Inverse folding.
């Protein structure tokens, strides 16, 4: 029988396994249930996306691998064809949406009060924005931030 186990990853690359186990919780209850339920038997194959998927650290992985091998189950790592996600900021980084830049320019001209400014920017973000966040991103009357430089 073929089993698959995924932890906080898309289980689709594991293919069509007869029994699927998936964990999204850091306690990994499905992994514990997989071992205790007796569903892994001699001659079965366990598909995982990577060694880190089975356990969080090399020492922990070694222990889980030994426990699974003692049951006579083969562990097979499946190669994921998806390209890795890019890491870090993009080359042109813009932490503020265009609406916020427009409101920032309006505010620096002094045409709106801070209360209006909070309401307008909160509406453009779709959620409540605290005064601290607002001042950190756009400055305040005593310490205004300069307009973002667009030439890179």
């Amino acid at each position: 029988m073929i089993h698959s186990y995924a932890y906080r990853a898309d289980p689709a690359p594991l293919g069509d396994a007869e029994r699927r186990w998936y964990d999204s919780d850091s306690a990994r209850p499905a992994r514990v249930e997989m071992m205790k339920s007796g569903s892994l038997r001699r001659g079965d194959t366990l598909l995982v996306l990577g060694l880190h998927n089975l356990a969080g650290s090399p020492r922990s992985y070694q222990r889980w691998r030994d426990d699974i091998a003692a049951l006579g189950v083969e562990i097979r790592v499946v190669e994921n064809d998806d390209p890795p996600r890019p890491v870090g900021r993009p080359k042109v980084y813009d932490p503020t949406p265009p609406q916020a830049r427009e409101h920032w320019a309006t505010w620096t001209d002094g045409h709106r009060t801070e209360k209006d400014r909070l309401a307008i920017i909160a509406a453009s973000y779709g959620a409540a924005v605290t005064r601290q966040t607002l001042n950190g991103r756009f400055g305040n009357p005593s310490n205004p931030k300069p307009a973002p430089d667009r030439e890179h």
